[in-house]
């Protein structure tokens, strides 16, 4: 844990506890580590409600923690589940629930039970998908989210060793059958037995290389990119002219993740395709990662495309447009027509007028459709 610090004098750490041997061993070891420092551990179990027995398993994990005087919370994924992409949706829901719980508890550190075998599988899967050199770096031991630090202290420990830890503590565990399901890439890989430690052995060198690339990307962005608070970015043409292909791929990927709000990187072949067209013809525009990439006189403008918009106002009485800075009570009847351009003044029944702020040359196709909320018609000329 020292390598993942610094920590508070009396550290409080949350543990994502599935009930499997990896996360249970982590919870037991972290509990001892925290108590030795006058701190504490909070175990968080996410019930995805995808299997009939999941609720009972979560309660059993709670009883195990209660017997060891470790505080425990169950976080349930409520609502309808998607028919496709269930693993990706479950992962996104899990991290959202865990981060929110840490925020509610005032905890800055969330420990995850990913271990050396998981790391080798991750590298093998990314290698098979041609995710590029960054994929070979595997999972990072520390990752900063908006409200919490994700910590992976077990990346150098094998699964068998963690099961031995549980056995020494006299701690049973739960095996999730989906971990060996041939419906999922990781399950198929485990069943095939094609993963070995060679995949994990390449991680340290790849991680050092990734850190070097990220530093170069940061320097290029600082020199050639302008980030606007309305949620769009102007990228100078020299940014791509000065970069080798791998750096340029990483730069474009990071821009669309930042602007588009995506969790996962766009596919490498799509990044390469758009990048190749941009370098061959500086007037090229396109879409990538829920973003519009539009050519300008000096380079490109990156902004969220309408298809990725979240159009529902957060409050039933308020509407807000990212990129305009305009919000108005729905009861006032503010309406922005789909054809509105930046700089247009729009009126409301309340008698006030509002000016749409943002890039004056924003293309009309970025206007989203009108929707009815709270008795008013809302149109998003620049999507959230």
From TrEMBL:
GO terms for MF: ATP binding; tRNA(Ile)-lysidine synthase activity
Catalytic activity: cytidine(34) in tRNA(Ile2) + L-lysine + ATP = lysidine(34) in tRNA(Ile2) + AMP + diphosphate + H(+)
GO process terms (BP): tRNA modification
Alphabetically ordered keywords of this record: ATP-binding, Cytoplasm, Ligase, Nucleotide-binding, tRNA processing
Entry keyword Iron-sulfur: no
Major subcellular site: cytoplasm
Keyword tRNA processing annotated: yes
Cell compartment(s), UniProt: Cytoplasm
Gene Ontology cellular component terms for the protein in this record: cytoplasm
EC number: 6.3.4.19
Pfam families listed in its UniProt record: ATP_bind_3 (PF01171)
Origin: domain of life: Bacteria
Amino acids binding ATP: 18-23
UniProt domain tRNA(Ile)-lysidine/2-thiocytidine synthase N-terminal: residue ranges: 13-190
Protein task: Ligates lysine onto the cytidine present at position 34 of the AUA codon-specific tRNA(Ile) that contains the anticodon CAU, in an ATP-dependent manner. Cytidine is converted to lysidine, thus changing the amino acid specificity of the tRNA from methionine to isoleucine.
NCBIfam families xref list: lysidine_TilS_N
Family of the protein in this entry: Belongs to the tRNA(Ile)-lysidine synthase family.
Note on domains (UniProt): The N-terminal region contains the highly conserved SGGXDS motif, predicted to be a P-loop motif involved in ATP binding.
Protein name as it appears in the record: tRNA(Ile)-lysidine synthase
Taxonomic lineage from the root: Bacteria, Pseudomonadati, Pseudomonadota, Alphaproteobacteria, Rhodospirillales
Gene: tilS
């Amino acid at each position: 844990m020292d390598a993942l610090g610094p920590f508070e004098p009396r550290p409080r750490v949350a543990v994502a506890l599935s009930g499997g041997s990896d996360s249970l061993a982590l919870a037991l070891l972290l509990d001892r580590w925290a108590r030795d420092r006058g701190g504490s551990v909070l175990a968080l179990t996410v019930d995805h409600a995808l299997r009939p027995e999941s609720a009972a398993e979560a309660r059993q994990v709670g009883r195990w923690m209660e017997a060891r005087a470790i505080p425990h919370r169950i976080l349930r994924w409520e609502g309808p589940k998607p028919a496709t992409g269930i693993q990706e949706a479950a992962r996104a829901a899990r991290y959202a629930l865990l981060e929110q719980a840490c925020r509610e508890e005032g905890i800055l550190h969330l420990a995850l039970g990913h271990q050396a075998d998981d790391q080798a599988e991750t590298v093998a899967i990314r290698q098979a998908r041609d995710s590029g050199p960054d994929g070979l770096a595997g999972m990072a031991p520390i990752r900063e989210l908006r409200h919490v630090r994700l910590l992976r202290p077990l990346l150098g420990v094998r699964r068998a060793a963690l099961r031995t830890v549980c056995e020494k503590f006299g701690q049973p565990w739960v095996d999730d059958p989906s971990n060996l399901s041939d419906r999922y890439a990781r399950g198929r890989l485990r069943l095939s037995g094609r993963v070995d430690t060679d995949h994990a052995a390449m991680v340290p060198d790849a991680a050092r290389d990734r850190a070097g690339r990220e530093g170069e990307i940061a320097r290029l962005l600082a020199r050639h990119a302008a980030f606007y608070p309305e949620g769009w970015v102007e990228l100078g043409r020299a940014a791509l002219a000065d970069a080798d292909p791998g750096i340029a791929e990483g730069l474009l990927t990071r821009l669309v993740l930042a602007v588009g709000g995506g969790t996962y990187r766009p596919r490498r072949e799509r990044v390469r395709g758009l990048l190749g067209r941009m370098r061959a013809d500086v007037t090229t525009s396109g879409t990538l990662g829920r973003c519009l990439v539009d050519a300008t006189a000096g380079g490109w403008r990156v902004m969220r495309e309408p298809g990725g918009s979240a159009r529902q106002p957060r409050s039933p009485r308020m509407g807000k447009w990212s990129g305009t800075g305009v919000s108005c009570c729905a009861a006032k009847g503010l309406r922005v027509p789909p054809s509105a351009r930046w700089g247009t003044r729009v009126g409301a029944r309340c008698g006030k007028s509002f000016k749409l702020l943002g890039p004056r040359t924003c293309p009309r196709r970025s206007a989203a459709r009108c929707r009815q909320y709270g008795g008013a018609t809302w149109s998003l000329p620049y999507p959230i």
